[in-house]
Amino acid sequence: MADIIKESENRDKVIVRTSIVGIVANIFLAAFKAVVGIFSHSIAVVLDAVNNLSDALSSVITIAGTKLAGKLPDKKHPLGYGRIEYLSAMIVAAIVLYAGITSLVESVKKIIHPEKADYSAVALIIIASAVVVKLILGRYVKSQGEKVNSSALVASGADASFDAILSASVLASAIIFLVFGISLEAYVGALISFFIIKAGYEMMTETLDDILGQRADSETSTQVKKLLVEEPEVRGAFDLIINNYGPNKNYASVHLELPDTMTVDQVDELTRRVQVKVYKETGIILTGVGVYSFNTKDDEASKIRNEVFEMVMSHDWALQFHGFYVDTKAKTMRFDVVMSFDIAPKEGLAILYEKVGKLYPDYAVQIVPDVDVSD
Q1: What is the pLDDT of residues 219-250, one digit of tens each?
Q2: Of 8, 35, 161, 217, which sits 20 to 30 A from 374 (CA to CA)?
Q3: DSSP, res 235
């Protein structure tokens, strides 16, 4: 627990420090661009300044969200406040969307009622400098975000790099105006607005996915299962469910298939061992380890298993068959089937019960449908 708290504190410090750098840089850029935009009558530059200001506000919200998410668990929220980070990211996305829509409205007004721009050498130097600053800031923020697994920082870093491209387009339109006398101000402003709206929409959908809960990535699931089946007693690892309660706060449960000869104290020792192993390697806390037993003393059981396995897996919607155990004396049989989303569990169960009943009419059968939640 001490390691978890220490890691969380270090992560929060990195996020806050990086966000402060972003706030200072964006405020200065916004101020300079606003002055340039107002004096040169450039809607594109003014909108670019607004974009920088929204980036600064986003960093403020990121800090607030990180601080609130770092609160220790209590009686009301025993798994902590980590998901507040996702709510703060949602607010940031809403701000970006609002800025994009507002910018688009202003750009359209300027297209209908154009206003001649007037650039100076100083204005061009400031815009060019902003491009360089944004590129450096973007790389720094994104690298820090990847370092501490902060989706908010990674998104901010990518957004800053993208802002550099937008600022470069403003610079290009200014040069075109000075050389050819063609004013693209309002049109570039509209283009910037579309990209801002797109970025806000993507941030919104990604954050919604985190709040709703999404499938654990294939690499993580595979790594956890591999660690578990490395144990000599474990024949298979199934029903892995990883619940996320904020960045780097993952809790999981799993079923292990073990031989029917193991005693309770052996299972207990194994459970504790794999919990420590998985946490050290992945940072995931195994809160629950269930058990499936498999037959080791009955040759007839192996024959029955193979026959039932072939029947179940002959269906396209049957993704996995596990947890099989049969008692040939008591005439009982039980197993789990992972079904795809192409079939309703009720319908799949009805088909399987009917076919198993025809194969083994004397047996009492229990089939548990599992959801395809991990790769």
Answers
A1: 888 899 999 999 999 998 988 888 888 777 88
A2: 8
A3: S
Question: The CATH number of the domain where 56 resides is what?
Answer: 1.20.1510.10
pTM: 0.61
* Tokens at 231, concatenated: 């144990």
Cα angle value 293/294/295 (rounded, 5°):
130
Beta strand 332-339 with 318-327 is: antiparallel
Q: How many residues does the chain have?
A: 375
Rounded distance between C-alpha atoms, residue 277 and residue 284, angstroms: 10
Do 276 and 361 fall into the same domain?
Answer: yes
Helices 121-148 and 2-40 meet at what angle, rounded to 10?
A: 170
Q: 335: helix, coil or strand?
A: strand
| 165 shares its domain with 284 | no
Hey, what are 57's tokens?
């506000």
What does the mean pLDDT of the chain come to?
Answer: 83
CA distances from 290 to 58, 214, 253, 295 (A): 43, 22, 8, 17
- Separation of alpha carbons 319 and 338, rounded Å: 5
Rg (CA), the chain: 29
C-alpha count within 13 angstroms, C-beta hemisphere, residue 156: 36
Cβ–Cβ under 8 Å, residues 254 and 287: no
- The tokens for 124 are 């061009």
- 164-204 per-position pLDDT tens digit: 777 777 778 778 877 887 777 678 778 877 877 887 888 78
Alpha carbon distance 291, 274 (integer Å): 13
At 14, list the tokens: 């990195």
User: What is the domain extent for residue 125?
Assistant: 2-212
Residues 173 and 235 in one domain: no
Angstrom distance (rounded) from CA 342 to CA 348: 10
Number of H helices, E strands in the chain: 10, 6
Residue 199 and residue 142 in one domain: yes
Distances (CA, A) of 351 to 210, 285, 358: 35, 37, 11
CB distance 62 to 115 below 8 Å? no
Q: Which of 249-253, 266-270, 333-337 has the lowest mean pLDDT?
A: 249-253
